[in-house]
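#structure-requests
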Amino acid sequence: RLRILEVDCDVDSGDDDVLGAVVTLAPLLEELIVHGAPSVAVLPQLSHLHTLRVEDSWHTESSVLASILAMPSLRELCIGRGTAHYGGLDAKVWNGAVRSLDASGSSSQLVSLSFGPCEVSTGYEDLFYVPATVFRALHKLDAVDRLVEIDDDLAPQLEFFSGKVMSADFDELDDMHHLRDVRVRCDETLSPDAEQRFLALSRLETLTTLGDLYCIDYLRSGANVRNLKRIDVSAWGEFPAAALMQALPAAKSIRIRMGSWPQLPPTGPELSLFRNLTHLRRLALEGEATRGRAVPATMWNSLMGARSLEVLHVNSCRTVPGVPPDIAKVLTRLEDVAVWDSDTMLDDPNTWRFLAGLAALKRLKISWPTQQAAQLATSEFFIAGGAAAARLACLRLDILVKIPEAKVAAAVRNACNLRTLTLECRHDISGTCLAVMSPRLREVTISCDFPVKLTLAAFFPSLPSLRKLSLQRSRMSLTDARDLLPLLTTCCPRLRVVDGVTRNGHSDATLVTVTVPSITVDEQGDAAPSSVRVKWRFEGGKFRRVSAADEATALADVLEASGADPDSHDFGPTRTRV
């Protein structure tokens, strides 16, 4: 009854019976992902298969590929990437399969065809033919960096095209009337004629700079932007004012990287960040690395109509102003906010009042780049009884300036319902700010210089729900970790991963057994003190708790890493607690 499967075949062993077993044991498969298959000749026997991804290699003949392309149930096919040593599917094999289908009058029911990227250069001799006589139902063709030939009959049915084109004029665009997303590469700079063909596309839903097309010009012209749903564009210089004036009523996701805000005449219009953003759910802004032109306070006005906004990220926009607090009242779905390296915005009290007014805020990534930002954070947002801070489930705090540790403690204390905490400090801390962490925390990441062993022993036993602990700057020695594991295992019963432990010349795979107190209940219901042995496996700088189910496997790996023979060791019975 299995419907979805991902399988890794061992090419080096010559075992070509893996897929044979799959066909026999899972005849109702609908989606299959195969890695390193020595042969795929048996796959056409899977009569219910509608999605096939073959990764890493494609060792087959044209006749086998033709039989796969002709599978009546197959709707989506992805052929894995090529590498510097193996170029992926050979164009001769592909073209031979396509020509044999065309000659026999057979066709493919594929709706989506994708080729993985190829790390080796391709020339005109590597041209892939994709004729409409064979691919009558094809709507998506993702050839990435492979050279493809699209005939006049196929072009009108395509809604997505990505690939390498032969001509800088990109003549095929004239017939691609239904395109919703296009990304192209060309050995030459695309011509002005190609630009005009691109600007004339009236049904585009995705606008992205992945490729060589003129996305900023498409926005600036405004003629066909009404259908755009996803925008991801870059303007490394000045972002055109005409582009910012466009109404984007269908946009759901916008990501803009700009060098600077456009220079406006003294009597010109007051610009905001586009208009009519009624369906916008995600907005991400990335700005200049150095201070650029000042941005007018009217920039955020368009958010008054963005009532569906759920995610707002601002990164390295050093001249962007603070967000007016009144806007928070209409953004009732905004739950994920990140403001990073944006000094002007973070030094403005309005930004912190805006954050405090967000009724749905759950995830906050914020930096304190200046003393003023730290002061505003603890006086406007991270305050005792503050509802917004108390609602946070995930907080990432990056402190770029040296401040009293009491301010860090105030932020940690008042975010009292956190499940995930990431704390980054560019200066040393004593660790006392961690004494007030929420007992509900499940994951803690600390990237600071602090006395690790003393801090963990003093404050982390109060985190009974902790599942993962990660140390990124002040790492813990293997000896200290072993000393702390009994305490952490006892007080944090759900802890499964401790990351950030230095190996110090020890074997990369080590098992550590910890004995912790427990309670045994007999058949009469009487309780008595007892103890439980818990195993931890150290590997790759991490301690991972070993469950009963994988205890034998972990021990075998450790023995193998130490040079012992795992087959000579009696592991005993393995019991799985469900």
